[in-house]
């Protein structure tokens, strides 16, 4: 194989890898609507009661470096809003929950409505603005529905 051709192939593979990485990263922390979400019982998560308006369920692991920052942010959001609860579930010793809720990365956050129905899912660390936007959206949907 010609050296120039090999360099072109390597450059093309590198460019494709960078583009795919940027596309993947752009989707991190974005809210996704959950189709046919399930109603979660707080006992399954071994947690206290859910919030009357909404619950933010964060799935973490001991090795997750971004999870503590997400925990602080979600706790602050929940503290600022009446009827919103934040629950952090450590999957390190509960792989059964990772499988049940299809958690492929940590942090993963589920937004539950007042009845415990999963309505949104964040894969990766969400921004505070995105979480607050989704809570506002849920509050509007509940007011109209």
From TrEMBL:
GO molecular function terms listed in the Swiss-Prot or TrEMBL record: isomerase activity
Which Gene3D superfamilies does this entry report, sorted A to Z? Glutaredoxin (3.40.30.10)
Location of the Thioredoxin domain = 54-135
- Enumerate the UniProt keywords alphabetically: Isomerase
Q: Superkingdom of this entry's organism?
A: Bacteria
- This one is known as Thiol-disulfide isomerase
Which organism is this entry from? Microbacterium testaceum (Aureobacterium testaceum)
């Amino acid at each position: 194989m010609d050296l120039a051709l090999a360099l072109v192939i390597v450059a093309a593979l590198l460019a494709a890898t960078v583009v795919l990485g940027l596309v993947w990263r752009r989707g991190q922390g974005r809210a996704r609507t959950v189709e046919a979400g399930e109603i979660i019982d707080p006992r399954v998560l071994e947690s206290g009661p859910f919030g009357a308006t909404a619950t933010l369920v964060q799935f973490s692991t001991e090795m997750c470096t971004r999870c503590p920052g997400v925990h602080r942010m979600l706790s602050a959001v929940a503290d600022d809003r009446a009827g919103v609860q934040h629950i952090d579930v450590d999957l390190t010793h509960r792989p059964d929950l990772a499988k049940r809720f299809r958690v492929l990365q940590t942090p993963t956050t589920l937004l539950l409505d007042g009845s415990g129905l999963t309505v949104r899912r964040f894969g990766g660390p969400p921004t505070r603005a995105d979480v607050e936007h989704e809570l506002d959206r849920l509050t509007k949907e509940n007011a109209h529905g």
